[in-house]
């Protein structure tokens, strides 16, 4: 749809019928209206005036409806009063419905202050307008503007879309206990019985302003039945690819080889059970580990804060909030950027 066509706007609520009022807005509205309207009788193009007149509405050479039309110079718009059924409205080249942009959706579903502030910033600086404006910019400026927009968008998408973070590690390291602290509630069963957690448990939470889809999984360890084997296979599938991991290690014991094997560049290591005293021979590749104790529910705020800050550092993200200009909020919007 061209940007010119896209300036038709429905003023009335959409329903199953009745009369709808559609506006053609702007200084060139009379010419654009004449492109859509035919006089009754001789089918000549019709320029609306302030006097309400019946006309035929034609789209792509076909008569769609008989409409009442008049110009309202005070509001800089031509109004078309037509049948309100979707069969008619759906055939018109209308502007996207209000409330349908990614920023509008984020505004409705915001999980915290930072997402709300980002949604409001993006509503004030619509991405579609920014992308349309790039076409007129000189080449050099355009390339720089696109680079800056990509950088802002990386942060905006991270703020708008929850990042999966998979808790992994040996059985009994404290994964489920950490999950409960991150969620501020006893969501998952914890205890000394190895293999207690089987089905992955997922919950949304906001840490340091960024949304996360936290998944607790079965721990690595001895498995002696089919169910445990299936639970481990699901855990492995969830952390496959480039998912962010939190590798929970019982810091009061020597680190098992199976835990060391779970470490990669997207892993935050949590050295847990600090309260029990820390064992020697901490692996050198775990130098950036976060040392914690999760046993006490009263520690939840400080645990959340520490884990949130460490995840943000691992992902190379700035403090959560507005990103300083137009930004894409999802993959569809990102795809609108020229290469
Ligand atoms: N002392 C102490 N015990 C902990 C801590 N974190 C977890 N635990 C205990 O370790 C045991 C195993 O915890 P759980 O979260 O079920 O381990 P998971 O198998 O990794 O999910 C439970 O008895 C927890 O209460 C901690 O920081 N300090
Ligand atoms: Mg568990």
Provide a concise account of the structure shown.
By secondary structure, the chain is an alpha/beta fold.
What's the structural blueprint in terms of helices and strands?
Blueprint: E1 8-10, E2 19-25, H1 29-34, E3 37-39, E4 53-59, E5 62-72, E6 77-83, H2 86-89, H3 102-109, H4 113-124, H5 127-134, H6 139-160, E7 163-169, H7 175-183, E8 201-207, E9 210-216, H8 226-239, E10 244-250, H9 257-260, E11 267-272, E12 290-291, H10 300-315, H11 331-335
Helix pairs in contact: 3-4, 7-10
Bound molecules: guanosine-5'-diphosphate and magnesium ion (MG).
Guanosine-5'-diphosphate (GDP) is lined by residues 171-177, 190-192, 196-197, 219, 248, 272-273, 275-276, 293-295.
Count of separate DSSP helical elements:
11
CATH topology of the largest domain: Rossmann fold
Distance between the termini: 21 Å
CATH class of the largest domain: Alpha Beta
| Uncertain runs | 1-6
How would you classify the helix and strand content by structural class? Answer: alpha/beta
Give the mean pLDDT: 90
Overall geometry comes to elongated
Strand order of the largest sheet: 1-2-6-5-4-3
**Would you list the SSEs in sequence order as H and E?**
EEHEEEEHHHHHEHEEHEHEEHH
Radius of gyration: 29 Å
Which kinds of small molecule does this entry bind, naming each only once? guanosine-5'-diphosphate, magnesium ion
Work out the strand percent: 15-25%
Number of strands: 12
CATH superfamily of the largest domain: P-loop containing nucleotide triphosphate hydrolases
Oligomer: single chain
How would you characterize the largest beta sheet? Answer: 6 strands, antiparallel
